[in-house]
Amino acid sequence: MSPGLLFSFVVAYFVILLIVAWYTGRGSNNDSFFIGNRNSNWMLVAFGMIGTSLSGVTFVSVPGAVGKDAFTYFQITLGYFIGYITIAYVLIPLYYRLQLTSIYNYLNTRFGVMSYKTGASFFILSRTLGATARLYLVVRILQDAILSSFGVPFWLTTLIILFMILVYTYEGGVKTIVYTDTLQTTCMLAGLIICVFYILHAMDMNMAQSISAMQEKGLTRIFEFDPNSKLFFVKQILAGAFITITMTGLDQEMMQKNISVKTLRDSKKNMVSLAFIMLVVIGLFLFLGGLLNLYGAKLQVSATGDALFPELALRHMPPVISVIFIIALISALFPSADGAMTALTSSICIDILDLQRRTDWDEAQKKKVRQRIHLMMAFIFLLFVMLFEWVNNPSMIGVILKVATYTYGPLLGLFAFGILSKRTVNDRLVPIVCVVAPLLCYVVDTNQAVLFKQFQIGLELLIINGAFTYIGLLMISRRKI
What we know:
The protein has one domain (3-395): Sodium/glucose cotransporter. α1 packs across α14 (319-352), α3 packs parallel to α12 (264-298) and α7 packs antiparallel against α15. It is 76% helix and 1% strand. The chain is an all-alpha fold. This is Sodium:solute symporter. GO terms for molecular function: symporter activity. One of its GO terms (cellular component) is plasma membrane. Its main location: membrane.
């Protein structure tokens, strides 16, 4: 299919998003932007959060990694399940009890202003790096598949995508995103299922036959039992649980949508539903990854990793599948990028600028500041995407999870200490502890061979980072009088 025709479908899809955004964003104010007026339907939030949790990286990287790691990513998914349940019954009740707009206000209540600002700053850093890494992968595919044929440079492609996201989130924020994410998740999952059925049909196989063929190639292995391996099942499950607790439960983007739900009971139902749905959806992505490896081997395609799915979908499948792939890919991109941009805008406005406490500004002035921050975040996204283009790592999901072990560790330690301990901390020293902990983790990570010999630390570095932060907070704390 010609790039021009593919681009026309992208434009048509974006027009539909704009219509939904215009309809749902009418009469929006700052409260609508930040928390959707606490009036969101829990089923819509739960369904839309599938797209936010997965992103374009999952759509491409998880199937692409099957050729190397088989189905071992499902070990992390089991950890995700544990993490979602923990969020539902530990963190969400806490957020509702305190009636938070920003979840980092908890740190202000528990420790003090410096802890609050530190937690918000680490979220801003973490989400900016994670969201732009996800955005980079999808922009790179769109650039190669469509816009490079028009002579459009990579930076301009990124700018076009960011402009699209800005246009439909500029007014409505969370109120709009709840609906647009639902539409986009539907398109993404439909694309996933259609691609699975097409490959099964093209290879003249049913599901049982395809699984048998995958087993013969060693692609269906789920559990790794070697304790020295980074993929050891205990490490992966623990890492998955803590990644979810931090990247979802301690993340303003993800919790912003949850606390927009009407009641605590519905918000908990949303999270528990998501836990079960994610097991099925990621299992389906892994199955697709197995099919892609079988199909690629049959066609003698040399592409591997993140390049495998785009190569097959755009060059070795019928034009209609190419369109479905591009739409599904964009649908996987937008819920991650639009939610991140909105949440980062909210965190800077509420946590850093204290927008809601500014009595000297009227509503119109606050809205103007919020919109300027929103524009600034789009520019920052552009800069970081260009940085990832320069790095050009072949597996972006590995990059994202690795970055998360460093940047989310201090948040894990802060919230764990606040919830599990009754001690008070020296608030002024908290930023120092939160900077030192990741640095210690870097020392441990780069000296693994010396410290642990054959034993390898993987994503559980996040837990070690949180533990370093917890110990540091313990050292600067005292008993509550």
